[in-house]
Design a protein that fits this description.
Shape of chain A: globular
Order of helices and strands of chain B: EEEEEEEEEEE
Structural class of chain B: mainly beta
Oligomer: heterodimer
Structural class of chain A: mainly beta
Helix content of chain B: under 10%
Number of helices of chain B: 0
Largest interface: A-B, 26 and 30 residues
Radius of gyration of chain B: 13 Å
Shape of chain B: globular
Largest sheet of chain B: 7 strands, mixed
Number of strands of chain A: 11
Chain lengths: 115, 116
């Protein structure tokens, strides 16, 4: 029940395309859903995050769509660029006492954006 | 913005020796720090959660005597891999957060450990 399932495992798009990465969860206590970008040999960097009280959030070229009833959320990258080529992880956590809940990560999606 | 510094970025050690990895929050007080392990082309697996001044809570299957965690101050947590073996070779990443800052987990840049 603590799992976050992410798909696809890998994704190749042309420059300008809109890659979409999907995640699903079971634990209805999750209330924080971030997306991270990781380059080889680096730690993950927060891209965008959403709480379950909204269905969509946009920050720059990144959009999260959230479907609370389906327990699914997705990341859309608009006008993708070769520099977006990286591994993307979704995650989920519970607030608990403040924001000290454990982050549970999805399996990751390796994105390649071709020039 | 919140910054977490992790050191060293790479370390090679001999089998049987111990290695210490430091994780520092540079511009905020980290009430909670998390340690993750990541194998090549895999996701981050949580190893343990530490709160300042108290013992770390280890995830199931993580040997607490092998992976010693010390969160002695609000800005520093250390992970010591004791009696390291080649199978401990991995990418170790820390994350820090502060409950008073609202949501947000800041990650360090990771440490590549190679045990030879």
């Amino acid at each position: 029940q603590q799992q976050v399932k992410q798909s696809p495992q890998s994704l190749i798009v042309q420059k300008g395309g809109i890659p979409i990465i999907n995640c699903a969860y079971e634990n209805t206590a999750f209330d924080y859903f971030p997306w991270y970008q990781q380059f080889p040999g680096k730690g993950p960097a927060l891209l965008i995050a959403i709480r379950p009280d909204v269905s969509e959030k946009k920050e720059g070229r990144f959009t999260i769509s959230f479907n609370k009833s389906a327990k699914q959320f997705s990341l859309h990258i608009m006008d993708s660029q070769p520099g977006d080529s990286a591994t993307y992880f979704c995650a989920a956590s519970t607030e608990g006492s403040g924001n000290t809940g454990k982050l549970i990560f999805g399996q990751g999606t390796t994105l390649q954006v071709k020039p | 913005g919140a910054v977490v510094s992790q050191h060293p970025s790479r370390v090679i050690c001999k089998s049987g020796t111990s290695v210490k990895i430091e994780c520092r929050s540079l511009d905020f007080q980290a009430t909670t720090m998390f340690w993750y392990r990541q194998f090549p082309k895999q996701s981050l697996m949580l190893m343990a959660t530490s709160n300042e001044g108290s013992k770390a809570t280890y995830e199931q299957g993580v040997e607490k005597d092998k992976f010693l965690i010390n969160h002695a101050s609000l800005t520093l947590s250390t992970l010591t891999v004791t009696s390291a073996h080649p199978e401990d070779s991995s990418f170790y990443i820390c994350s820090a957060t502060n409950q008073d800052r609202g949501y947000g987990y800041t990650f360090g840049s990771g440490t590549r450990l190679t045990v030879v």
